[in-house]
Write the structure tokens for this entry.
Amino acid sequence: MYKKFFGLRENPFNVNPDPRYLFLTPGTREALASLAYGIRSRKGIILLTGEVGTGKTMLLNMLLDWLHHNRAATAFIFNTHLSTTELFECLMADLGIPCESRTKSEILIRLNRWLLDKYRAGQITVLIVDEAQSLSPQVLEQIRFLTNLETSSEKLLQVVLSGQPELEERLKLPHLRQLRQRITVLCRTSALSLEETRGYIAERLRIAGANSGPIFSPEAIESIYHHARGIPRVINVLCEHALINSFADEQKLVTAAHVDGVAREFGLDSIEPTAPVDGSGRPNSAPSVETVLRDLATLLDQLRQPASVAIGSGKGNYEPYS
């Protein structure tokens, strides 16, 4: 309703995790580099954690785009209220592996043969689980068991577990210590700083077609940061409704008053602000992987203008999660 008024081609603040709108902060680049390195190096289990709304699903969608461009086989599970039987059914269905038997032994035999064929063909197979903090201990144990499918030197199935910080706490439980010991790469997403919030809003407006003067006043951006505490999902909500209110007032510059009004409407002004993480939550011992970062930047550009892409190799020192 406000796109023409502000000179935009599309809504810049949709909450859908569209990879085109991925904003690459140093922390985001490092997380993507770690994910790419862990998968290419067949590290087994990779853990991605972060607070609600900090962009984990966006990263997973970006990762899936990269995997598909590189012809990897993928299974994506987002409904984590599954039994162990349902887990295997979803995995086999997503990978396109026919199996008439419903017995666990037969499924594992078929899966192992299929994974070996993919491995011999030089293909990587990845299982991605979103909202993994909701998985039952039984399902988590089955995921650990799946990583036993391996050759003498490499894992046949790569697993990315993504979830809220509660997932890290769950993995500290004694009965999950075997799974915890198999996590070799740890990535984290974090809230944006004030400067990153400015860049985030500007980049989304640019991608959506903004090409004239500023749309949000500096005071409005500071108010957004204050109320959202650097959480991208909340930033999107505040920006979206502030644009609507500014449009209703026929003002082409969004003010702090517009943002504060939205914050009151959504009850965000009553939330005690906390100091946002400024990017210090980083993957364990994860160094910068320059080659991977350059290729990820290339991929981001090509996703906006689809074409084939390849990611270079990365090197780094990663320690088991503990």
User: Anything to note?
Assistant: Residues 3-19+192-270 form a domain with the Helicase, Ruva Protein; domain 3 fold (CATH 1.10.8.60).
